[in-house]
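Ticket #238: bound-state structure for magnesium ion.
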Amino acid sequence: MAYLQLQGIEKEFGNVRVIRGIDLEIRQGEFIVFVGPSGCGKSTLLRLIAGLEETSAGTLMLDGRDITHQPSSKRDLAMVFQSYALYPHMSVFENMSFALKLAKVDPAIIKDKVDRAAKILNLTNYLERTPKELSGGQRQRVAIGRAIVRAPKVFLFDEPLSNLDAALRGQTRIEIAKLHRDLGATTIYVTHDQVEAMTLADRVVVLRDGQIEQVGTPLELYDRPANQFVAQFIGTPQ
Ligand code: ADP
Ligand code: MG
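RESOLUTION: The complex was predicted; output attached.
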């Protein structure tokens, strides 16, 4: 059974339909990558799933519940953005624990959760620093840590590596893959980068103009692209 199910999802801004009938079933623990050229609707689709935008049509089901009209805060999803959006005046520990503190979680439990997330992300020695005392890669790991401590049902990543330089991008990509292996959490990851898509995904969803062109494992897309667009985008030799 699908853990996260998208049925007939559409989104219009004014009278422009940017998401045009998306049907997709995601299994628990899957690493799904939305890939496609700039402007094809990847971020919008992720924001619809996160509840940061209202759908114009369609149904979203998560773990057997209809979440289509639930506010973002009730959906039990955590989103990591491309800009880290850390609180500059707070320490790494405070940044990672902020949401739990707001939710009035017991301080001892908060400390335990943050310590465990910091260990996974190699941030244990940086908990007392502020964001400006960290490298770009470390900041992005803090942003990921903020998501981990909430133990969400689904992780949503929107181009999390695009502000990093090439070397850090590769390294952080490997860390995200490791994180998924360790936590086994259902993940939707948005990128316009074919290499990221093909190396991280269990299944890749290729988007074009707000529609799905093909869904498949990286190998399936590579071996049997559904059409010229997918073949070119994935980089299959012609
Ligand atoms: P991607 O993330 O794939 O680059 P987006 O989801 O950001 O694409 O955008 C898809 C389309 O929707 C683009 O044409 C974009 O201009 C448009 N769009 C996105 N957000 C809004 C908005 N809030 N208002 C109007 N148009 C938007
Ligand atoms: Mg985008």
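RESOLUTION NOTES: Residues 4 and 62 are 5 Å apart (CA to CA).
TICKET STATUS: resolved
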